[in-house]
Amino acid sequence: MTGMTSSARPLLNRRLAGFGTTIFAEMSALAVKTGAINLGQGFPDTDGPEEVREAAVRALREGRGNQYPPGPGVPELRAAVTAHQQRHHGLSYDPDTEVLVTAGATEAIAASLLALVEPGDEVVALEPYYDSYAACIAMAGGTRVPVTLRPHEGVFRLDLDELRAAVTDRTRLLLINTPHNPTGTVLTRAELAAVAELAVERDLLVVTDEVYEHLVYDDATHVPLASFPGMRERTVTISSAGKTFSFTGWKVGWITAAPALVTAVRSAKQYLTYVSAGPLQYAVAEALALPDSYFTGFRDDMRARRDLLTAGLEEAGFGVFRPAGTYFVTTDIRPLGYDDGFAFCRALPERAGVVAVPNAVFYDHREAGAPFVRFAFCKRHEVIQQAIERLSTLRRQL
Fold it and tell me: Collapsing DSSP states into helix, strand and coil, what is residue 61?
C-alpha cells in the first residue's frame, strides 16, 4: 500500500529509538502557541557585535567563502582560534594541523564521538548533560555511563570518587562539559586536576565542551582541561562562536587537539557536513580578535542578567542554584509545592506565561532531575523583568 512499508521493523534506527523531538522544540512550540516568554531554549534575543555582522556581509560581497571553503576551515579562522587559545588560556596550537572548524559545537561533538568511539566502548559523561551527548554516543554505538552532579550547599558538585568508580576496562572516553549546562557549575582547578590524573592513569581520551568559556562569574575561573599535565595529547577541546558572540544561528564551531586526534575527527566530520558557513568563518575570525573589553563587557552584562533573574526567581518562591557560569539557572520547584518538572513546565505557560525546560530530560536517572527546572537569562533585561512579574503570581496560586 502507498506510504506503507512491507516490514514490521520500525523506520527509525534502534540506536535513536529513544530520542524523539527535543524538549527545546516542544517547549518553544508551546511558547508560540500560548504567547509565553521563552526562557527555555538558550539563544539570545539580540544579535552580537555589529562589526562582526558587518564582517560577514563584507565577506559575502567580496566573494570570500561563497564556494566550498577548505575542509579544515579557512586559514584566517584557524589562525584566529590558535591566537585565541594562546591569548586567553596560554595554550599553543598549530593552525594547520591542530584546528578543525565545524558546523557548531554540536557537529564537533558528533564527529568526535563518531571518530573515537567503537561500538561497545563506554563513554563517561557528567549528568545532567546536554541532550545531543546521549544521541551522539548512541549513534557511535557507545554505551553511556552517567556520573551525576549532585546538589551540595547551593551548587551542583562532581563526586570524584563516583567518577573514578565509573571507569572500567571498557571505558574509552570521558565527555566533560565545563562551564556546565544546565547546572551552571564551573569545575574547579582541583576537580579538573583530578579528572586529568584519572585520564592519564587509565589512558583515556577526553572530549571537553567549553562553549561557555567566556561566561564565568564571581570567583569562578575557566581552566581548559588540555592545560593539565599529560592532557594535551589526549584531549579534544570544543568551543564555538554562537555562545561567545551571540550568533547562534551561524553554527561556527571548532576543535583544538593534537594532530592525530584532529585527523581522526576530521575523517568523520568530512562525511557529515564536509564544510559549512564559509563567509561566516571570516567574520568569526575577526570576532575572536576583538579586544579584551568585548569579552569582559559581555560577561559583565550577562552576569547582571543572571542577578536579575535569580533574584526574581527567589522572590517567586523557587529554590535557586546560583550559576557560576553559562547563561542558565537551575531551580528547585519543591518549595512551590511541585516535584515533577515535566508537568510543571508543561503547565507553566498557561499558569504564568513563561516557558522553562525540565532538567530531567538531561538525566538517565530521571528521578535525580525530577524537581529541577532550567531558565535561560540570555534575554533582554526588559524581557527578564516581564518574566519575573509573571512568575511572581505563582506564590499566589499556592
Answer: helix
Contact 367, 395 (CB under 8 A): no
For 185-238, what is each residue's pLDDT tens digit? 999 999 999 999 999 999 999 999 999 999 999 999 999 999 999 999 999 999
Spatial neighbors of 63 by CB under 8 A, at least 6 apart, are none
Which positions ≥6 away from 48 have C-beta within 8 Å?
245, 246, 247, 287
Model-wide pTM > 0.90 = yes
Label residue 6 left, alpha or beta by phi (over 0 means left) and psi (-120 to 50 means alpha): alpha
Residue pLDDT, tens place only, 238-279: 999 999 999 999 999 999 999 999 999 999 999 999 999 999
Closest to 261 in 3D by CA, of 213, 303, 205, 312: 205
Q: Strands 328-332, 171-177: parallel, antiparallel or unpaired by DSSP? A: unpaired
Pairing of strands 122-127, 143-148: parallel
Residue appearing with cell numbers 524523539: 20
